[in-house]
Amino acid sequence: MTKERFEFLFEEYKADRLSQEDWEELRMAIREGFHNAWLQDDFWQILKRGGMHETWTPDLEESVWRQIMKGRHPAVMVEEEEIPAVSMNRSVLNRKRVIRYSAVAASLLIITVLLWLFRPVTKQAVSVAAIRVARNDVHPGGDKAILTLADGTRIELDSVRNGQIARQGAATFNKSNGTLSISLAAIPRAESGEGADEAFISTPRGGQYQLILPDGSKVWLNSASTLRFPTGFKGKERSVQLSGEGYFEIAKNAGMPFSVTVNHMKVKVLGTHFNTMAYPDEKTINTTLLEGAVEVSEGDLAKRLLPGQQAALNSAGHQLAVGQADIQKAIAWKNGLFEFDHTDLATIMRQLARWYDIEIIYRVTPDKTPLGGSISRNLSLTEVLNLLEANGINHFKVEGKKVFVLP
Question: Is residue 169, in this structure, part of any structural domain at all?
Fold first, then answer.
């Protein structure tokens, strides 16, 4: 292997973009040993940036290097071998300082744990316990949804083959690996949208799905969400209704604006990228704009958003506020992550309940210590709970699909 090839694979590894085949190639190169000096230097630079070089021990280094030599892919947590505890002399106090990539398996494991150790408001020392993965675990959600046609026909999208799955009037429904697309054989001739056939797609708890509407607009649905849409846009406006959470990339059409109705909120756009979250168990309905422009309204209240802004509607008080958004946090779910910043445990557990399809039972008032960091949505429930417990404050017990929050 050339040095250039190794450096390319290594950078892809740090960015978490390696395929299984490329991972095996990189692992074999590391086994050869002649790159070790370069890896060690890069690794120590990462430790210094994370403030961990003072507590790094030879025993811990040997233990985590054994993991990479066993051929564990970066996405896999330690299952059999315990990693010695790491005592931290200081907390990581700022989310921007959390290490977001790994140089070798050793740094990857530490980084994975670190993502849940920092507590932005406190300055107490924390300790990392050994992590084990339960054998009978709750798996993360996946591409699951139900399509309901105008005549009441229900199609479970995760149980049908790819290809054409249904027809409704001039509309054809096609499925392809987690994406449902609607195409029209001919554009219906009508002056008004009244009487247009409608369909809706619903994701269960533990499900997500992507939809391509007849106009080419793309929608990503998060778990426990429903999108109602016409099978052919007609009239002067393209209109859909959403409950739950969805990310939208709207095809431009100045002559036919696009609108999303979410409970009490309406979002009007021409062509733009935005995220809307409206779960009934959340206090606010949030619309976050990534690019373009949208107008958000509720009754007589109306606000125009600029890229990077978020509109939050308090349904109880009918108050509409606009402020700067944390874009990365707002669309983290679409990118396969849980992203938290000064987030309390109860809010975190609501997200876990929707993604893992679990019931949360509190045996104690949930701790309000703000937490922050990123966790892959591909981890099992036990792996996520282990990370939440690492700060020494949170404690959980899992019984089937029930998670008990303990003192």
Answer: yes
